[in-house]
Amino acid sequence: EVQLVESGGGLVQPGGSLRLSCAASGFTFRSYAMSWVRLAPGKGLEWVSGISGSAGTTYYADSVKGRFTISRDSSKNTLYLQMNSLRAEDTAVYYCAAKQPDSSAPFDYWGQGTLVTVSS
Amino acid sequence: SYVLTQPPSVSVAPGKTARITCGGNNIGSKSVHWYQQKPGQAPVLVIYYDSDRPSGIPERFSGSNSGNTATLTISRVGAGDEADYYCQVWDSSSDHPWVFGGGTKLTVL
Predict the structure, then answer these.
(1) Which of A21-25, A60-64, B95-99 is least confident?
(2) Residues A98, A107: contact at Cβ < 8 Å?
(3) Which among A56, A65, A99, A107 counts the fewest CB atoms within 10 Å?
(4) How far is CA A102 from CA A80, B49, B56, B107, in A?
(5) Out of A45, A59, A65, whose CB is closest to B43?
């Protein structure tokens, strides 16, 4: 059974940092590209960041570029998102999602999400 | 960057057919995927590559894509179909290439 389990969310002050993790199991992690997608209160899904299976290529939405860093550790089957200089507008549930290596492939698997709240 | 436009809401009576559109410039040349998300739950893929259904998704869900509009069709709608629906594409011309539509709230009357 495929499982993606996010952790690391919580309450953080504006300007603070947080590191999210996503533990994967039930599929060949290194063969899948991974992404982080968020759902802010009252908003729609927003793709945040992506990384290739080999970790050779990373992608970022303009809204987080320069502040967030995506990485993966295939030895631990884990995806990460380092979030710095957090803003109130980063408040959202963050989901990790897995997709086949083909760039146009859909996001097949999703975690249940972890809530990040940025507030003083 | 590429923009996908969805109606904020669609309402349909039980047993009828719901159609949710996703507009984009020449979207017919791209592969469109559709996700269903219920409150407090993770998104679920319901249609991929315009019109394919993952295993476990009822045949009532179908998709089409042509010109500037992709459409998700849900026939014989039931209360369990009430959810937010999002279209998504990959934009090869962008360095932030995965794009979601704004989402459509499907209400079953």
Answers:
(1) B95-99
(2) yes
(3) A56
(4) 21, 12, 23, 34
(5) A45
